[in-house]
Amino acid sequence: MSLSVRPQRRVLVTKINRSQSFAGVNSTADRPFRNLSPFTPTVSRKTGSRVSRMFSMSHKSPPPKVPQPNRLDEVYEALKKGLTAYLEVHQLELEKLSTQIRESKRNSRLGFLYDLDKQVKSIERFLRRLEFHASKIDELYEAYCIQRRLRDGAHNMVKAYSTGSPGSREARESLAEASKGYKEYTENMCLLENELESQLGEFHVRMKGLAGFARLCAGDQYEIFMKYGRQRWKLRGRIEVNSKQVWDSEEMVFLPLVTEFLSIKVTELKSLANHVVVGNVSCETKDLFAALPQVVAVDINDLGTLKLSLEVTWNPFDKDDQPSAASTVNKASTVNKRFSTYNQSPPDTPSLREQAFYV
Fold first, then answer.
1. Given 2.60.40.150, 1.10.10.10, 2.60.120.260, 1.20.120.790, which CATH number is that of 202-317?
2. Which one, of 64, 14, 345, lies nearest residue 186 by Cα?
3. Which of 309, 231, 278, 254 is nearest to 43 (CA)?
4. CB 307 within 8 Å of CB 36
5. Which pLDDT score is estimated for 326?
6. Per DSSP, what are the bridge partners of residue 312?
7. Out of 4-8, 68-72, 85-89, 355-359, which region has the weakest mean confidence (pLDDT)?
8. Which residues form the FAM65 N-terminal domain (predicted)?
9. In 3-state terms, what secondary structure has residue 266?
10. Which of 4, 28, 162, 194 is such that its CA lies 20 to 30 A from the CA of 155?
11. What's the pLDDT tens digit per position in 147-178?
12. How far apart are CA 298 and CA 282, in angstroms?
């Protein structure tokens, strides 16, 4: 998995290579993309912390005034890849459970077979739901492409009538009609773009911690502020002895956006009136549409000596639209517990051996 950090928001998208990182550069300078290796610092959290949710952003936000078809094409392609991977993972799990049922029919208890059969039916329902969701996204995108072609045609007509002789009455009427059609098709594209954005699901982001060679010392305190469109997440933490970290917030749910990028600002809290901004980066998010949880690393400063580790899990269904039965089919699953697509809970805090920083 690879995410690219953008020098500033709302610029043209650059093609990137996949890796295991969430690479970053400062937002104030134009620097090439970097690929990083994953790392897993030890993080502990205060008891009683809960998952924060941002529910009122994407679905209730008004449609954009100007469509961005090129950006939507890229998001659509990334979304289709993510849904295809989701279907493949669930289909593989369904085949494994079906094989297990066939091998266990003669020598297993009836209750065990009944439990496996329930899991198979639950996955089948989930697969049908995914297929319907994918077909709905395809229909929205096809309707968007039709409106885009009509808008391009109206634009060409407006351009042709504007450069021609404007004196005749027929020319003025044709120009007014073409302008009216151009405006109508533009509004339709904005509405469809907003509707497609509401079908992108959720990003479940879990804080893993900061890592740096000699940058982190016991007693240091940091504040991390993430901004994604109108969605916000602010958390504070401190570095304790034995490289342990304590953060006041654990997880956040972001609604994916089409045209916005994830902005991350890290500030070191030295004293009451002395705060030092360590880094401020803006990151691409379209590569987060993946079937399995991903641990991504962000370069916070220019030299890459301070990195932020996040675990991101994409849920194709937003809010409570995820079927509850899909979360119960992991009892006899052969998929690794950490990367189970049915058990969406984050993994346990890593051990001290997992604190190694791989270059």
1. 2.60.40.150
2. 64
3. 309
4. yes
5. 37
6. 205, 294
7. 355-359
8. 16-358
9. strand
10. 194
11. 999 999 999 998 888 876 666 788 888 888 99
12. 10
Please, are residues 213 and 264 in contact by the beta-carbon 8 Å criterion?
no
What is the distance, to the nearest Å, from the Cα of residue 74 to the centroid of all Cα atoms in its chain?
A: 14
CB neighbours of residue 262 within 10 Å: 29
Identify each DSSP E strand in 135-220 by its residue range.
Answer: 202-212
pTM: 0.72
DSSP-based three-state secondary structure for 61: coil
Here the tokens at position 89 are 């993972």
Q: Is the pLDDT of residue 295 over 80?
A: yes
In 3D, which of 70, 258, 63, 257 has the Cα closest to residue 148? Answer: 70
User: Contact, 328 vs 40, CB < 8 A?
Assistant: no
- Per the CB < 8 A criterion, the answer to whether 262 and 219 are in contact is no
CA angle 271, 275, 279 (to 5 degrees): 145
Dump the DSSP string for 285-346.
Answer: -GGG--SS-EEEEEE-STTS-EEEEEEEEEESS-GGGS-GGGGGTTSS--S-GGG-SS--SP
Q: How is the chain split into domains, by residue range?
A: 69-198, 202-317
